[in-house]
Amino acid sequence: MPLNIASVIPSVPDSPEPYALKHPDRIKKFPPENSKIILRDSAHRNSPMWRHELDHDAESAFWLLVSWVLGAQPVQCPKETLAAHTWANLKEDVESRITFINELTNRRSLEGITHSFYRPVWPLLKALASILVVDRLWLEESDSRNDPEYVGEAFQRLIFQFILDHHNKEFMTHKVDCHHRDIEPIAQLPSLTPTPSERSTGKRKRSSPEP
Question: Most CB contacts within 10 A, which of 28, 51, 52, 172?
Fold first, then answer.
């Protein structure tokens, strides 16, 4: 993806201690790196023909997680509708999902995107999204974040740390309703006032097919 505006490259997530002890090779391959602002993409970003790589599988896992969290309705909790524009951005075309993931990254609060019961999940969603909105080819080849394995590695560290921090919290084991949350209704335009001839005949012209 072309870099059109200055972007923030997140720092490499810290490794949870149990993970670091078991996988020192991964820590060595993806050492700590600070966040930075990038103004232009790498001069070396030209790559071979596009192919499916490991970071694309990590992205698929992200969208599955987001879809689940958006639709999850915890049982014995007040029902909260899912914002129609949020669901539309998730289900529509690529441009809509780009809008959605940027919203996850940039919004201070995710109020209305998930059920409020899952407020503790918001920081995780924002952190995962901030990793994913970066095209690794913006970076120099020497940067460990320009590696097909990096997105999966960053996700592992973030998710594992989240589990360690929240494993005993109620929202982690609370039962979820088998039905997704309802989508908020979209306001309908008021009916057009019939013309005098339509009132006299009881018939109305067909509306234009244009929106």
Answer: 172
Q: Which among 109, 46, 65 is positioned nearest to 83, based on CA atoms?
A: 109
| Residue 15 located in a structural domain | no
Residue numbers of the domain that contains 158: 53-184
Amino acid letter, 54: L
Contact 74, 171 (CB under 8 A): yes
Ranges of residues in the chain whose predicted pLDDT is under 50 = 204-209, 211
Q: What is the pTM of this model?
A: 0.81
**171 in helix, strand or coil?**
helix
pLDDT digits (tens, 9 = 90+) for 56-90: 899 999 999 999 999 999 999 999 998 888 888 88
User: Residue 59: inside a domain, yes or no?
Assistant: yes
Q: Give a yes or no: residue 95 inside a domain.
A: yes
**Residues 101, 195: Cα–Cα separation, whole Å:** 47
CA 187 to chain CA centroid, Å, is 26
Nearest to 165 by CA among 199, 123, 102: 123
Largest alpha-carbon pair distance within the chain? 84
| Contact between 59 and 151 (Cβ < 8 Å) | yes
Does residue 206 form part of some domain?
A: no
